[in-house]
Automatic annotation (TrEMBL):
Catalyzes the thermodynamically favored C-C bond cleavage of (2R,3S)-2-methylisocitrate to yield pyruvate and succinate. Pathway: Organic acid metabolism; propanoate degradation. The keyword ATP-binding does not apply. Pfam families: PEP_mutase. It comes from the Bacteria. This is Methylisocitrate lyase. It catalyses: (2S,3R)-3-hydroxybutane-1,2,3-tricarboxylate = pyruvate + succinate. Belongs to the isocitrate lyase/PEP mutase superfamily. Methylisocitrate lyase family. SUPFAM superfamilies: Phosphoenolpyruvate/pyruvate domain. PROSITE patterns: ISOCITRATE_LYASE. The lineage of its organism: Bacteria, Bacillati, Actinomycetota, Actinomycetes, Mycobacteriales. Its cofactor is Mg(2+). GO terms for molecular function: metal ion binding; methylisocitrate lyase activity. Keywords: Lyase, Magnesium, Metal-binding.
């Protein structure tokens, strides 16, 4: 029975994530801004779920500048991970402090049912990797962060992804050098932040032999490259971190404006997720196995 939480064990999800990384197929992980969005991502047929730090902060009404705490991230990421049978990777920013905090972050996210996390080499306070003015710590400092994280891991299948923000600061070659050092320190996956175009993704792929993750965030420094192109150059994972939130908020904003001017939401019904689709995603009818009084209604046409 997997109504109340995922039917797939944490270990099986981590094994699935690792199998995806070595499958030779591009793994596609959209960001889920909520547990419900994670259910939709699985239903549509994606390979995994991403929990974005930027989205988690925005959802709390905050900018993505390292204000969110380990507890906030663990609680929300855990709720998202539990809502789906897919593996979920969480954005752990810089690890919420010094290396020992990065280690504790691994323990907390393992306990919360995540399949993996990523740690980045930015200084605190961090900022979005696609903004100017960010900075990175020396390689040695990031290696301490990573080694602490790797040492804290109890499930050997829990994936530790290292993100380098160095491309926009120290240049492409420095980013490659850092990626190699991070892989040597035990990172299973490298997040190549803010590369500019397909040529750079291709060059990065040729320069290292560890699994690579591409960030297709909108309105940033990277050209929006298709899954087919990323697959062809040999990338292993693509995330669409903020995309579902941007889509939803775009629709919410225009809908709110229409309600304000028209005085009704009647013209918006076609664009809405129908009540019946929501109930399908929530598996509402199956809760009847516990209590047959729960789903004893029929939905009115057009309701
Ligand atoms: C991937 C990212 O770390 C995130 O938190 O989702 C962000 C995305 C964004 O702000 O567009 C980042 O690239 O820094
Ligand atoms: Mg982030």
């Amino acid at each position: 029975m997997s109504l109340f939480s995922s039917g797939v064990s944490d270990t099986a999800k981590r094994t699935a994530l690792r199998a995806g990384l070595t499958s030779g197929e591009l793994q596609r992980w959209p960001g889920a801004f909520s547990p419900l969005a994670a259910k939709l991502i699985a239903d549509i047929g994606f390979d995994g779920v991403y929990v974005s730090g930027a989205v988690l902060a925005a959802d709390l009404g905050l900018p993505d500048i390292g204000l969110t705490t380990l507890s906030e991230v663990t609680t929300r990421a855990g709720s998202i991970a539990r809502a789906t049978d897919l593996p979920t990777l969480a954005d752990a920013d810089t690890g919420f402090g010094e290396p020992m905090s990065a280690a504790r972050t691994v323990a907390a996210l393992e306990d919360a049912g995540l399949a993996g996390l990523h740690l980045e080499d930015q200084v605190n306070p961090k900022r979005c990797g696609h903004l100017d003015g960010k900075d990175v710590v020396p390689t040695e400092v990031m290696l301490k962060r990573l080694r602490a994280a790797v040492a804290a891991r109890r499930d050997p299948d829990f994936v530790i992804c290292a993100r380098t923000d160095a491309r926009g600061i120290e240049g492409f070659d420095a980013a490659v050098d850092r990626a190699k050092a991070y892989a040597d320190a035990g990172a299973d996956l490298i997040f190549t932040e803010a590369l500019t175009d397909l040529g750079e993704f291709e060059k990065f792929r040729k320069a290292v032999d560890v699994p690579l993750l591409a960030n297709m965030t909108e309105f940033g420094k990277s050209e929006l490259i298709t899954a087919g192109q990323l697959r062809d150059v040999g990338y292993n994972v693509v995330i669409y971190p903020v995309t579902t939130l941007r889509i939803a908020m775009g629709a919410v904003e225009s809908g709110l404006r229409e309600i304000l001017t028209e005085g009704t939401q009647a013209g918006l019904l076609d664009g809405m997720q129908h009540r019946s689709r929501l109930y399908e995603l929530l598996r509402y009818a199956e809760y009847n196995d516990f209590d047959s009084e729960l789903f004893n209604f029929t939905l009115a046409d057009g309701a």
